[in-house]
Amino acid sequence: MQAEILSVGTELLLGQTVNTDTAIVAEALSELGIDVLHTAVVRDNAKRLEDAVRSALEHADLLITTGGLGPTGDDLTKETVAAAAGKKLVLDEGSCERLCSYFAGGEMTENQIKQAMLPEGCTVLQNDNGTAPGCAFETAEGKTVIMLPGPPSELLPMLRERAVPYLARFSKSVIASHSVHVYGRGEAAVALLVDDLTQNANPTAAPYAKEGEMFVRVTAKAATKAEADALCAPVVEEIRRRVGNFVYSVDIDTLEETVVRELIRQGKTLATAESCTGGLLAKRLTDVPGSSAAFEMGCVTYANRVKEMLLGVPHETLGTYGAVSEQIACAMAEGVLRKSGADLGIGITGIAGPAGGTAEKPVGTVYIALSDGNRTWVAKKSPFGRTKSREWHRHTASSKALDMVRRYLAGLPVDEI
Amino acid sequence: MQAEILSVGTELLLGQTVNTDTAIVAEALSELGIDVLHTAVVRDNAKRLEDAVRSALEHADLLITTGGLGPTGDDLTKETVAAAAGKKLVLDEGSCERLCSYFAGGEMTENQIKQAMLPEGCTVLQNDNGTAPGCAFETAEGKTVIMLPGPPSELLPMLRERAVPYLARFSKSVIASHSVHVYGRGEAAVALLVDDLTQNANPTAAPYAKEGEMFVRVTAKAATKAEADALCAPVVEEIRRRVGNFVYSVDIDTLEETVVRELIRQGKTLATAESCTGGLLAKRLTDVPGSSAAFEMGCVTYANRVKEMLLGVPHETLGTYGAVSEQIACAMAEGVLRKSGADLGIGITGIAGPAGGTAEKPVGTVYIALSDGNRTWVAKKSPFGRTKSREWHRHTASSKALDMVRRYLAGLPVDEI
User: ipTM, 2 decimals?
Assistant: First the structure.
């Protein structure tokens, strides 16, 4: 089965909104073993949309549209797709009732009701996270059409819980993917290490860059999920072996989740004191559900006065070495450990930019310290001749801190890199 | 001039990576008055890429590719596009030297050098943020081709600083866009208020939803930027008037930037105490360059013990009302204000989920308090019958806190909504 994904929205062609929907849908189809031939973006314009729908129904077996199901005048997808596929729109009673109860206690405007108009005879895909239902149907020519809402927070659960089960009957082979996540070695370096493995057809292995990290994705196709998994396993193991201590996880997508899980497993707690990362490390740790069991306390101490008051950083050390220094990172890590009573303390201080850099300490210089009460390690991140954004410096500094904790918990040398 | 954007990368069709490049490029073209006809995504496959390039060169005047310029074996864009456009690749000496100096002090692998091979006679678009240079050239048929790297952190500055100046000569009319940003009123409600304005052709006005917010984009086309701006101005003013106090900015994209700018303008400082948002509010505030002038201190106090110790939240209040309560939000806001000496204190406590909800306080219940030392306001966010993610609850709670600060600074009723 071959699919085409059509995203509808002039805003996607003006660059105001990033098209995450295509990626979400493509991934789900890929796991069902459905090939995505092509993806395209079309304007909120009935004529252009109709042309695109006709072309898709000609070339592909499955058309999935995203967006344009909402209440406003430029939400044209249902009308246009239904017309191109020769279907009438009728009021769906269930969706109408759901709309009314959704707005119970809030404001419901007149134009909302349009969302309950759906192609005659379709399977309604209920929206548990918003107002616009989706739908699925077959055309007279035997093509499958699925319409999903645009907002990713609505699209993703509808896709997983309603559209995928609808599609499962069409899928013959199954794809399994596993990712080996790496911190501390770049895409090019790892690509050389695993070069021979990337030449295989099944499973395939492909290296990808990710902000300040990289991962190798191993993908196999087989009749069942178990068989596809079994094809992946030895390749995943071989990549782990070659890349060594720089592998932080298999299939756990983020450093923060890896670290939180391991902290909980070991019954250890962590506290953070952040200057230039400004709460980003705490935010990343608490992105992980259940992190409250491992995350004791976080402080964002921008001002020197606050570093002294909250963390007990010595006034003299600040005077002697300056706020952006190895010594202050260590004092912050030790201070927050003492204050919180956690097992591990992190201190981060640096210059995220765009202003504040000097010749000696350019923008991007960050010191990151980890203390366990007995010993304190400190790492220095340098901008390394590269002009990067504030966001980049903050993100990579918080990643480095997470990797230090990971290494500590795994009994690896904390400062290997 | 009509353009097509081609993004290259199998990962974009498997859904592993979200295609932000298309949005970035489309926005820049739109500002130059260049229409984007179509965008598409192609696999890392020479044959398919070649077909797509030929089709684009046939239908459009300008082809912009993103991705596939890197060092690994599946980076095929330059070879394939150059061949389809009838150009040879030659070693560019300047790019070669830049590569060597980029890697000075780091690891440079052999495969990196491939990146310095560029189409003969092209204009090299230097990469200030990575290793792969881009390029621009004209084909024998008078079509323009521009190749840009995939990583957004490299693409964005190269586009702005090198590709846009290259393209400026082709642009006859200019587009200006201005956005009216709204918090506290939904897309559908605002769409009804401005319905008549969305019917105009120049300037156009279109409402868009954004996570927990919305905005109306006003776009005009004219011979000069000044004329286009002048066309937008009365429409922007009219939208402001109709939407009233719910408008938080024109052209400042985020609540956090709006708030930080206004704090700095008024010479006021802010401190935050976060429970369920876990540092996200501090992170958003410190995303804004220069925020250190306005952001005094942030605390992430998950545990009750830490709330007592760090913020002086009374033990009895915790016992009587529970950690997720109006009283604790107020005590946190007042505590962090006292502790930090800032002008304003924020306290946030709630249940972000997925676990921890009760019948009385379901997941998504969040209390947000703002104190100025004389008075404390508190707002309750309810899940309102909608199942949303942890990320959603955390994001919208931090947005609500930012909006309360904005309203306070503007002298508006803090608890109007």
Answer: 0.77
